[in-house]
Structure formats: structure tokens, C-alpha cells
What we know:
By secondary structure, the chain is α+β, with helices and mostly antiparallel strands. Among the domains are: 256-444, no CATH class; 445-480; 488-566. The chain has helices at 7-22, 26-31, 58-68, 71-80, 89-96, 107-118, 122-125, 162-183, 185-189, 192-206, 209-222, 259-263, 267-285, 318-332, 336-346, 355-369, 379-392, 399-418, 424-443, 446-475, 488-518, 532-566; strands spanning 47-50, 53-56, 126-129, 135-136, 140-147, 152-158, 229-230, 243-247, 251-253, 287-289, 297-300, 305-307, 313-315, 348-349, 395-396, 526-527, 530-531. Strands 3, 4, 5, 6 and 8 form a five-stranded antiparallel beta sheet that branches. Strands 7-12-11-9 form a four-stranded mixed beta sheet. Strands 1-2 form a two-stranded antiparallel sheet. It starts with 6 loop residues before the first helix and ends in a 5-residue tail after the last helix. The relative contact order is 0.06.
Amino acid sequence: MSVSLKPRHLKLYADLGRIFVRYGRSDLAAGGGLEAGLLEGEPAPSEVEGGNGKRTRKGEDLASDLEAMGPTFIKAGQLLSTRPDLLPMEYLVGLSRLQDKVEPFDSEEAERILAEELGVRISKAFSRFDSEPIASASLGQVHYAEMRDGRPVAVKIQRPGVRQQVASDLEAMEKVAEVMAARTELGERFDLVAMVGEFRRTLTAELDYRQEARNLERLGENLKKFDRLLVPRPIMDFTTSRVLVMEWVEGVRVTSLRPLARMELDGEELASQLFEAYLQQVLVDGFFHADPHPGNLSLTADHRIALLDLGMVARISSSLQERMVRFLMAVSQGDGEEAAQVAIKLGEPGPDFDEVGFVAAVTELVDRQQGVVAKDIELGKVVLGVTRTASEHRMRIPGDLSMLGKTLLNLDRVGRTLDPEFDPNQAIRTHVANILRQRMWKQASPGRVAASLLEMNHLIQELPTRLNKTLDLVSSNRVQFKVDAFDEVYMMEGLQKIANRITLGLVMAALIVGAAMLMQVETNFTLLGYPGLAMILFIGAVIGGVALVVGIVRSDETSTESHHRTGPGRR
Length: 571
């Protein structure tokens, strides 16, 4: 198997190969068929002096290299920043700061796309449209505008040609993943083909702005009870697959607040509501904003937190939610062993999974947090550490857990910006009762109750027929029970042998005790100068002991030979 040789893919293969070589994985470059990237003299990532001595800048350098490769790889870097099972922490830190900012494209081109998508002249749709973008990213850029009724809005316009570029890049990435899965241990262990397939689905959805608009509507509805949070509403009549129009939110990045500005906030309440809102999204709604980095959380003039950019969302099944509740509770309470056991149920242990080592490592990781003061606890790092530990011990963890860890890591940072004494563990313990209550109400929704009633109705209708058949079988003595068990003949033979050996051992013990007692009785009958009856009992015990040993050895040898002849599967 080899990679595609299409001309448009060759440069990308070379770039990927160089990245693998530069960051010490030339084996993956060769295994992925990227020999074109195996260049000698490739410079190593730089190092800088930090406050605690030397630290590498590998993460920052990798982020820069991915930025240079275009929008697909910027998004891939953002996704990799949630996978501690794939990359060391130093890379995750660098990729988590990956800035999705590029030079804006031509304003005339933006206006052309906008008019084409809306089907009307811009002046007909908006009373004001600023041609100069206020933000520019790899997939699109944002302009300020005002509706005909005076409402301020943000207009997000997709970058021209980005869909074609992403489709080409994804096609090449899928080919590389197929080759790596077939030729490398890492590719097979992490199922790179499925991973790239999931990345394709995520990125394809992000390129459809109608999907992002629906995400905004859904999240806004789910979080409407939180009065300190704001989700901008989309203007659906002006939204297409390449244009998104939504409410304008005036604010500043949460992490850019100055100390004096923080004094005017109720930081404790803001941090508490934000954390509870994300717990609800993950553990109740099963639908959450998966990229709450500081750039996507804005503090408005009326001291609310706006959640922006819902291109990247995650969905969690109900069964997975229940296990995540238990996992987070175990971590927050410092129960490392319980956290490890729940993580095992969350994941997929491989054939060489080291359960004992995994439980010990997770227990140590969680216990280490119990000696940390509240303001220094980093719950997100603990969750990401568990996913990395799972990978080291040959267990595959669902990407949802890694995404949750990255989300909590960002929330830790934002929460401490709003409230320096913010304790995520305490927040989980405080809100979990409310979270569980919401889950119960959700499960008792009219739809679920109706489904249960339909099942019960079906059971009641079928019950007479099934009961009649069962009674007919009982009355005609045709009821049969099938039990898959060990062969009772072999089991009884084994038990009989054990009983015989125990009995013989007790008889010999009695002979020895009796002989010892008779040694004290004077008698005319002697053997070798000792009382004769006592000596007879001793000799009988010795003979019985030898016979027992010989019988045990012969029986074990016979059983071993029979096992080898019939195989371990005989019953």
C-alpha cells in the first residue's frame, strides 16, 4: 500500500514528512510513505530559557509549522491539542495557543460572496456594512453590519476556495492514515483511519455555517436559565452555508481583564455559572461548546459572559454521560481507584492492557491533587493525564473524554481569571446534585415516558400468548433448561480423589497419634526394643504415606498427559 501520487498532494506529503522528521518521528514518515520528507539537515525545534531553567518550544514551533500548512492543519492542530494520548504535554501546551488568525482576503471578494449567497444587493439587506473585517481566521472572516431595522450584527463570510482546499487536504490525509494503519504500530493502535474520518465529519460540519447557526440556537435554548451567560442568536433568514449573520456582541476577552476591572465584577458568581453551564452541557444535554478558549469567551459591558464561535461542538451519548458523571465525581473527591475503574469502563482495553499498572498510575495521579491548595488545582490536567496514562497502558479512551479534559483545562484558566480562589473540584461537588436531578427530569420527559408506555402496551398485549405457550410446555413436560457448565463426571471424579486423599491423610494422622500414645504403655511384645503395637502403627503410617505420595504423583502425571492429548477445551 502506498500514498496517492496525485500532483496536488505531493507538496503536502513532503511537508508532512518534514514535520515528522523535525519532531523526532522519522519512523512515522517512512511508515506513512512520506519518504519525500526525509531530508537531512532539518533544523530541530528551538529552545529558550524560561523562569525555571531550560524549556523547549517544540509546541510553539509545531503550531507555527501547522499554521503555515493552511486551514486544514490549523484545525488538525486544534484537535490534536485535545489528545494527550497522542502527543506529550509540551506539544499540547503549544497547540492549545494555536491562533487561528490569518491575513484577511479581499473585501471586494467578501462583498461578492455575501451578495451571491443572499441573492440581493448588500444595500438591500443591510443599512450599513463595514468592508474592513474586524477578525480573520483560516476558514472565514467577520464584518460588522447593521440590519435595516438598526440591529447591529456580525457577518461571518467563508474564505473563497477553502472548501476545495480542505477536501484535497483531507483526501491526502486519509491516504496517509491508511498507509500508517497498515504499516505502523501507532497507526493501528490509535485507528488513524477512524480518527481522520471523524476529523473530516467535524471539519465538514464547521464549513457549513447553517450548522453553526443551529448550534447557536440549540445552545442558547439549553442555557437560557443562566442569566449571566449570553449566546448570540443567529439571523436564520440571512444565513447560508457560506454566510452566517448573528447578533453583535460587544465585549473583551475574559483573560485580558485588568485587575481594576475585575474588582467591579462578581467573579465568583460568573465562574460558578460558567462551570455549572458546562457541566450541564456535558452531563445533561449531551451537547457542548467544545472550544471554550479565552478567545471564544467574551465579557460584555453588562458583565455577562458571551459564548462565541460554535463551529466546534461535541455530542455525548446518554450511557457515556452516566459514566462521565461517576468519573468526574471520583476525581473531584480524590478517589483515584474509582476513577480508574470508571475510566476502564469508558475505554476499550487492548489485548496487552496493564490493568494493575493503570489503576496504580491513575490513583497516584488523582491522589497527588489532594495535597494541592484549591487555587492551584487543575482538574482539566488530571482528566488529560488519565487519558495519557490509558494510552501508555494500552487502552483506547474515547475522544469525548479528551475533549472534556481540554474543555475543563480552558475553564480552569477562565474561572481563575474571574475568581482567583475558584476551585473546580468544589464546583463539581456543589453542582452534581443539581446535575443528577436534571438528568432524572430529562429521562422522565414526555417523549421517554411515551416510549416506555408503548413498550409496556406491547408487553401487555403479548403477555397472554406467551404465558399460554409457557403453560403448555410445562403441562406437557417439554420444558428444558440448558446449562453451559463443566462436565459433572470429571468434576465428581476430581472431588472423589480429593476426598480419598483427605481421608487417607486423616487415617495416617490417627495412626501416628495412636502410636505415640502407645509408646508410653509397657508390654512384653516389642519390636526393635519398642512396644510392638506402637511400632506396627508407625510402620502402617509410613507405608500409607508413601502410597499416598506415589498415588498423587502418578495421578497428576496421568492428568497432564490426558490434558495434552485432548486439549484445554475438553469438557
